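Supplementary Data S3. Sequence and structure tokens for construct A.
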Amino acid sequence: MAPDVLPRGRFPDERGGPQFVSMDSVTPRCIPLPGLRVQALEAGPADGPLVLLLHGFPELSESWREVLPRLAKAGFHAVAPDLRGYGGTDRPEQGYDLETLANDVVQLARHLQPERPVYLVGHDWGGLIAFHVAARYPEVVDRLAIVNAPHPAVMVKELWKPAQLVRSWYIFLFQIPYLPERLLSAWGGALVPRMLRRAMVDPSRVPPGRLAEYEANFSRPEAARAALAYYRQMFRHTLTPRGLREARNYPRIRAPLLVIWGEKDIALRKSLTQGLEPYLEQLPTVRYLPEEGHFVPLEAPEKVAPLLVEHFLARRSQEERKARRPTGAEPHGEGPQPPA
């Protein structure tokens, strides 16, 4: 989400700052899918359980760089793609509706781990896509984790409430032709890192130079136009009879859900973490981070990664308990068993 398109005040010069040095365990990878070539960052053993991490706006796979090696250390094969139209991933003219974006993720999951469902993580726009994948393609997602992102159906209802409407003003700005992409790409994309830093509680956690890739990506008007197409397609679809009908009849998500939420988010209200039960088959686990803002993966990767590992390893712990239990035996003295 874009909490402030015209940020004020002084921020570090991303191009003039020290070059950010990537962690050696994170490597780039090009992944050919049917109709789309995806650029991604990955870490961890190729035969480890697959974790897909989806970024938001106005970001890149780079947002997950410091989370990836932490997942790799726990034995996961962690892959963060640039979403359609972003970074090194193809930028076609069409395909920025939620269903097509979700299908990109499904194809990626099946390409990288064809025999098993994956662990899926999404932040911001990546979270909306992840929710949609888990709802429409339950066989693809083993466990789901969402970081500061609304469920699509909940967002449709909350968007028109005054408190959220004020925070979402930029969605309406983005519907104007030509002007938003000109703003985002002006001055070599310099507004983008300023937008990111303005939404952080403590911008100093992200060193100068860390956001240079974001700036370079949005310096191209066609890249800005592709990112804005997400908002334009969503807004127009939401207002159609079909879109309203889909929001009312969203499939329930089968996968266990973890929600990680930075409480100082200036774009999304905390109330978006409530009222999820009608869209889930089991109660979610919600972890609030009281001192974090909207861009939690960038600002606090050391807090996000352990919560993800805990959520994903819960599946393994449950399987081990079942394997140790005698056939036909029921749990005794342990209280209710958590869902798998």
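Construct B, processed identically:
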Amino acid sequence: MQRWILVFLIILTLSMVVAATFQVRRVTHGTIDPPRTQYPATSQPSPAPLAPTLHRTITPIHPIAPTSTKTEQPTVIPTQTPFPSPKAYIAYRVRKGDTLAAIAKASGTNPDYIASFNRFVGEPEVLRPLLIPQLDPTANTVISQAILVQRGANRPAVALTFDAGADSSHTAAFLDVLALHHVHVTFFLTGDWVQKNPELTRRIIFDGHEVANHSQSHPDFRQLDNAAIASELHGMAQTFFDATGIWPAPYFRPPFGAYDERVLRTVIANGYLPIFWTLDSLDSIGETKSADFIVDRITNTLTVNQRNGAILLCHIGNPSTAEALPRILDEFAKRGINVTTISQIL
């Protein structure tokens, strides 16, 4: 019995030795995976983050021109429709019963030319002053009149006009206010002012305002002979054309408001209708005026009948006028008074 127990123990011992040897061979030959580290379970393993896509941004570099040589791009100006060169000019005030066709026939020109030159459509109102460009003066039966326009048609509207002969420091402020109020007015510019302020001149046109002739150098026309008057008128027109590509005809305001019959007839013969004013703001006369003074004078001096069709004179070089302008426009709007140009008031 004891012998069988001894045999069993020997066999068991041999089996254990063989099993141990086999296990060692599997490990050394890599047939068993090494133990793995256990991590907490997750719903999905998180992928490694991707490197961000780089978008190269190129910042444009704008070259800065030296101050002394900076050149602004000119404003694009619409060009006028060309007309045939007139042989002469006459002034005429429309009478009751006149038609544009009849006026044109009697003055040796055509109706479309008169309407376009004077900036109106349809038939002219009675008493409207016209500058008539004549294509055939020999056919003319109309006597030219020495007209000076001091007011427009009798309706609830005023023509706001600004003379510019010297200072331009407040011009941009005027234009900003007018644009904000959607108002168009008439500027009487000198050629000297245009030469000094070509970009402001182009902006005036681009903003839709009307420009008229105020001479080249702002002299008293009564002190000039007829040739010198013509030179002043044509000099401004050429300067303005060089800056904008258009002509400033047909309106002219005499410097200082100085005129006589000879001056009026000479101006008309050179292609301009003389324009005066109904009310002067006095912003260029005497001691400096306050904005309150200018607002009150422009809006309250005239009666209703006097104000209808009135031509108002201001100057763009006056800081008080620049300050007063928004209040003037607001007050006229409150009263239902249209503020417009010379062409529209006539």
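Strands lie at 88-93, 129-134, 157-164, 186-189, 210-213, 251-252, 273-274, 279-280, 310-315, 338-340. Residues 2-28 form the longest helix (27 residues).
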